[in-house]
Design goal:
Length: 215
Amino acid sequence: KENLQFILNWFKKFPQYRNSDVYLAGESYAGHYIPQLTVLLLDYNRKPNVKPIKLKSIALGNPLLDLEISVKSSEYIWSHVAISDELLTMRRKIYNETRFLLESIHNNVSKECTKVWELTDEEMGSDIDMGDLLAPTCVSSGTARQLGALATIHGKFVKHEVGIVADPCLTDRINLYLNKPEVQKALHANTTYLPYAWDFCLGLVLFFPLLSIAL
């Protein structure tokens, strides 16, 4: 409802766009809030005496729809020869990402899950992104400050068959940039001067949406 209200208020602030086509798009947890917002928009458009919002379409990329289907990756990483046949069998019978997430949410990760997770880390290595096995990794994750122009050059010119790949150290760069005092001041962020650095969605910020899905 807050997102719908934001859209309505935004059109009041910028009435020149009121007749524009609207497209809603998102990834990950947008698999929940984009469809929900779409329903609210359609309901709003059915109300009498309102000017309908010209919603044209929605797009979801790698959406988190259901923990039973949206987070499992065993077959994918095995098909890229990133884990062994034996580990694939263990992940099928003992552990999968769904079980691990549910146990993590309730802070009760079993020894079985921990063991399979450790074996996966041993076979794949900790610097491989399960979401994109073919993507280049940052030369030294967490040290983008020292990489300087090297990471930018590396990111711009590393190529696969599909074309140019983005800077693999971009996440580190964004993190460092958004933790600069002058940047936070310009964004009117961290006005309470929190005693820790800003980070991407982790901890409770990440687990509360997952818990709502699990429930």
